[in-house]
Amino acid sequence: MAIKYLDAKRIRGSSTAEKTPAYSTTFGATTGWRTNQTHVFIDTGNNMLEFELDDDSTDEYLNYDLGVGNVSNDSWILRYELVFSTLNLSSNDVNNALVVGIMDNATPSGLVSSGDAITYNTQVTDSAIGNVLSCVNGGSQSKADVNNDPFSSSTATGTTFYVEIKRVSATSTEQRVYSTSDYSTTQVGTTLSRSTSSVVTALRYLTIQVQNGAFGGNGYTGYIKALKFWNDQTTVVQDEKATLIASPTLLQENTIFEETDTYTSYFLQSGIWKDKEWSESARGLIAGGGGNNLHFGNQSLSLIDVIEYVDIATTANSTDFGNLTRGTDVMGGAASATRGIFAGGDADSNVIEYVTIATPGNGTDFGDLTVGREWIAGCSDRDSADNQATRAIWGGSQTGSQTNNNVIDYTTIATTGNATDFGDFNEERRRVGAAGNSTRAVFAGGQYHSDSSSSQTNIMDYITIATTGNASDFGNTDYKSYMAGCCNETRAVYFGGFRNNGGTLRMDYITMATTGDSTDFGDTASDQFAGAAFSHSTRGVFAGGHRDTGDNIEYVTIMTTGDATNFGDLAVTHNSCSGLAA
Q1: Burial class (CB in 10 A: 0-12, 13-18, 19+), 69
Q2: CA-to-CA distance for 273 and 253, rounded, in angstroms?
Q3: Distance between CA 247 and CA 32 in Å, rounded?
Q4: CATH number, span 283-581
Q5: What is the CATH number of domain 19-237?
Q6: How far apart are CA 190 and CA 82, in angstroms?
Q7: What does the alpha-carbon distance between residue 298 and residue 152 come to, in Å, rounded to a whole number?
Q8: Could you tell me the residue ranges of all domains in the chain?
Q9: What span, in angstroms and rounded, lies between the C-alpha atoms of 200 and 52?
Q10: What would the pLDDT profile of 490-507 be if each residue is shown by its tens digit?
Q11: What pLDDT shows up at residue 277?
């Protein structure tokens, strides 16, 4: 069925819909076809093309010009309905053939015409019906044929058969007959397959030809209806919701697709169709921090080991989860659907620890970073379609006395052990924002050297997570450091940041699949920076950080733009904290 728009956010369609043909006709008009002949002609009143093989020495054809370059040299499908009106055979019948297919010859003559062609021939000889898949290269025929299968002298007249000719590659062609119009479940007879010369090319003319040598009885007659041609295709079936997702920006978030063949409703969430409203675990964790004092400049520290969590799909205050293995701040966080990992931290820590996200509890040792460091950013290759992830990525950090580091590490989330070197940033910097989807990680902003107002950078780098290697330039963002990033499969949002000796309200976003500069998303409610960010497929959350009280939680809807909305409050203050979600 065709897609039906029921209202602005409700669509009805099928997962097994027929693709739109390049050409189709019901023979209700003769436009584009050769003028009717005596024994092959279009009957517009009855919506059919009729053929008559009941006269000696008949050689006639009708054809339709599909145009130069409109027939692929390696994949196309031709379908039509075939009915025999009369079928009177005799041992004296000689090469009485109905030829249907595509040729490069505009004026075919004879059973095997000159030029190139791919055709299916129903050919009567000596009271047997030969079913022939014919491939003609420069007038030379190769064929696959079988007698009386599926058509024979006992074939019922008036029965509709559904014929398919398919070029499946440059060197292979197939033909089938079915008894029902779905062209899939009720095949009649044998599949004919024939190797096709790859130089059978430049086909152009859709042709129906009748060719009679001699007949000894009354011959046979019939008609063709509902002819369709698909170019550059090996299947005519498509999932209509998948065609809609090719332009997801045209659809509103949470648009409903009612699938008529499966009786299933899908919801569009962040560019992905889901068969129910997304019920991912949706748990976000906030860990560590500087307590009630700032880890900023040379101020004193009051490090905490507290881990809290929120349910991303709701709005509420946080709940206690457990404790880290140590009191620390300025870590990186990354997660899969089941495991959350925190890495690095205060005093150039090389510690990596993990928690099981669904079960509140304390952190457990995972392994070590390749280099101990702080102000590290983390993300993973979590796919918002299935919430799975394989790798955690760590980058953008400092070691020693504010010495920047360009090292990028990775760990395999499901396996405990030490981190492995991934590659390097193009430029050493710390205090970056990181966001990753199933393909890419993008590191935004950061700080070059001292804490002066001129040290912020607008650089964005990206890596392909499944590989290893150095980062590549993505584009530019606003000049700021201490950002926190999160994303779904389509878009990343970077919250807050520090610029010109103060926090900034501005949030920025990028499209993960492309490269380019970031775009203003909206403002946070307070000028927090160095907080934690995490997300599920729909919502991004920003928690903690410096300025105000350090216990704010805010959220945005990732695929829209606008200002952040209050989510709730943290139980304790988390300055310079880390976040993750699954």
Answers
A1: exposed
A2: 10
A3: 34
A4: 2.120.10.80
A5: 2.60.120.200
A6: 17
A7: 95
A8: 4-16+239-274, 19-237, 283-581
A9: 29
A10: 899 999 888 877 788 899
A11: 43
